[in-house]
Amino acid sequence: MAAVIEEAAPPEADIPVATDVTFRVRRFLPEHDSEPHWQDYTVALFPTDRVLTALEKIKGELDGTLSFRRSCGHGICGSDAMRINGRNRLACKTLVKDLDTDKPITIEAIKGLDVEKDLIVDMEPFFAAYRQVLPFLIPEGHEPSRERLQSAEDRARFDDTTKCILCAACTTSCPVYWTDDQYFGPAAIVAAHRFIFDSRDSGFEQRLEVLNDKEGVWRCRTTFNCTDACPRGIEVTKAIQEVKRALIFRRV
Amino acid sequence: MQTHIFDVIIVGAGGAGMRAALESSTRAKTAVLTKLYPTRSHTGAAQGGMCAALANVEEDNWEWHTFDTIKGGDYLVDQDAAEIMCKEAIDAVLDLEKMGLPFNRTPEGRIDQRRFGGHTRNHGEAAVRRSCYAADRTGHMILQTLYQNCIKEGVEFFNEFYVLDIILNEDSGEPVAAGAVAYELATGEIHVFRAKSVVFATGGYGKVWKTTSNAHTLTGDGMGIIWRNGLPLEDMEFYQFHPTGLAGLGVLLTEGARGEGGILRNASGERFMERYAPTIKDLAPRDMVARAMVQEVREGRGGGPNKEYVYLDLTHLPAEQVESKLPDITEFSRTYLGVDPITELVPVFPTAHYAMGGVPTNVDTEVLRDNEHVVPGLYAAGEVACVSVHGANRLGTNSLLDINVFGRRAGIAAAEYANSVEHAELPDDPQGTTIALVERLRSASGSERTAVLRKDMQDTMDMNAQVYRTEATLKQALSDVQELKARYANVSIQDKGTRYNTDLIEVIELGFLLDLAEVTVVSALERKESRGGHAREDYPTRDDVNFMRHTMAYKSEDVSGEDYVRLDYKPVTMTRYEPMERKY
């Protein structure tokens, strides 16, 4: 039985108050602008508000033309990856209190994909790269009547890479991806890892051909930007290294 | 304007839509039209699991599951539909495993199962381990697995195509599906999709409320389109408020937390559910737990400086169990409230979560245009639909089950129908209504703003049409919503462009939300009883004599040409389960 919960009224200083925060947003309206430009907006926010809340407020109260994607609002749909103060993050998972609000907070579209409008980028090349690595189970032999058996240990082997939400934060933080649009980028390799290390999968040889290509995993320079960027805490660089090792030794 | 021709079009790419697509695309030329990239769909937010009587860890059978579903739904469930769902549940789970879904495993390597609210052994004896799960990311894994298999099967997607209307051919005097009209977000272009079968899998409408677990994009578009075309909506008064939303935010914390042993406590630390559901306590169905929580707060036993929430206690569970079985909700709690569930109690309060009601269908997912007749070629599955397997209250995990079982049935039925008929002729100007809607809203110059109207709607719905309702609160909500609808006629947007005009999308979505808020409130006003998720303080008991029936709401015109919500009723299908008092 848990202890009785003490409920003291919080001291005045602890009561959060909304304060003005300025956001410097990199705008691009394709029907008006030939070049992107910066625009400042100031909105009142609580420290626990999300950056997404700020963008919603700006759009709702100040400027309806500000355009961005969003859906779930709590970090599981992957719609709102953007550069916040120069770092790739999800707007819905970044709280105002964790940012320095003494100066404007910069917001830009993720890099390496064409900007369509404001914070919206063309996601097609990203998903095309994902499709290239055959991101689905390739089983062998007859289908069992019940489930395939898999030990808890075997299941744990690829747990980390099942968490990917395809937000593109990793891929668009990768300096190789920025300069080489043939490289399919960290997210696609994470997807490959998820299947290569699944004991039920037999598609290693087929994926190997794709991954072993000169634009495949070997383009990775191990800068760890992807691991830092992942909002799901996936050890992306480690997963890429494991895929490289599997290719070298031709086994998982 | 562009025209496309398919055998089957599926509207929506969440679990139900993609499960349908996997069946349909192997049988007929199929396209999936989706407002969002498929992996953004809200199926991905589901956490706790998908129930099926696999009996992998203890004795279980699908008949017990059926009984629990019917009792959980306070006997408003259509029993034939529940039987189908619970029977087909076993293959639905096994199919997902074969597609690659990484379920948690038992020591023997089978799919692991855990307890969930309202799921019991032998008709209520004790909680049973029935929920198949992947940590607290079951919905994420289902969405990813279905998308991956759609890639494998080469399913054709039209991403960021927002369907705004269905096309019905009424040449015979009765409506027949002929296609749909979509707005392409990237370009602002209107597309006509001609099809023999149209499957709606567009999800729910939780954004009617302020405190909700639902995504920003869950705006009831599919239900709204059906409604505007004069087709009925069923049981819209039954909306589920999930007990454990993060207090003040509404972010979902899975019932699986209580399945793993979590306990709800009030400010004095009491395990209050012992008083409300002595047998299964914290694992009572959601409607009962949500009411108990509100009751505790109303009677002054809430926690926090304003005594406005209760607590979810996981602190007695081993840290390793919490981290491995409930990693995402642990992170949500840390990120958004700064509370660590390993060592601290998590403030929680009910959050608008799931529509039991929706577009009425039969068990083959064909859409009904009245109590008896279907619209040939029109199908619905998942949260948008009302089969009705959830009745007055859905059991946890049965939504992930619903989308898989009825998504599959929709895909098969739509393709088989398409293969048996010719395309219906398009009516003249099938895109006219949509073009008029888009042009009016894009060029409007009124003084009202989308965000203000939306907030006002959400405020009144949270205040007046939430867990508890009375005639007075519902009348207040109705007059507020009707006033907001009048103000909506004077709304304008700032973005007048054609490319990625999300300002326009939001104002269109608000129009659907306002329609659905009104239907919900009108249906609720007329149901003068308390049943499942619909709790009327002025009518606190269930009234089987007068209200053992489904509500059917229709958009109608009165003599002066004004729209109003006309209500009719439909009998509940009973097979072998006699209504009983609902005790746990």
Give short descriptive properties of this protein.
heterodimer, A: 252 residues, alpha+beta, five-stranded mixed beta sheet, two-stranded antiparallel ribbon, B: 584 residues, alpha/beta, six-stranded mixed beta sheet, four-stranded mixed beta sheet, 16 helices, 34% helix, globular
Brief write-up:
With 252 residues, chain A is α+β, with helices and mostly antiparallel strands.
Molecular structure report:
The complex is a heterodimer of chains A (252) and B (584). Chain A has 252 residues and is α+β, with helices and mostly antiparallel strands. Helix content of chain A is 30%, strand content 14%. Chain A is built from nine helices and seven strands, in the order ββαβββββαααααααα. Chain A has helices at residues 51-62, 124-132, 152-157, 159-162, 175-179, 185-196, 204-211, 225-229, 236-249; strands at 19-27, 37-45, 81-84, 87-90, 105-108, 115-117, 120-121. In chain A, strands 2-1-5-3-4 form a five-stranded mixed sheet, with helices on one face. Chain A has a two-stranded antiparallel sheet with strand order 6-7. In chain A, helix 2 packs parallel to helix 6 and helix 6 packs across helix 9. The N and C termini of chain B lie far apart (57 Å). Chain B has 584 residues and is of the alpha/beta class. Chain B has helices at residues 15-24, 62-72, 79-99, 138-153, 221-228, 256-259, 273-276, 286-298, 319-325, 327-337, 398-418, 432-443, 450-464, 471-488, 502-526, 544-547; strands at 2-5, 8-11, 30-34, 50-51, 113-121, 126-132, 156-159, 161-169, 176-184, 190-194, 197-200, 233-234, 239-246, 263-265, 310-313, 346-355, 359-360, 366-368, 374-380, 385-386, 468-469, 535-536, 549-557, 563-571. The radius of gyration of chain B is 23 Å and the shape is globular. Chain B contains 16 helices and 24 strands. In chain B, a hairpin with a 5-residue loop joins strand 9 and strand 10.
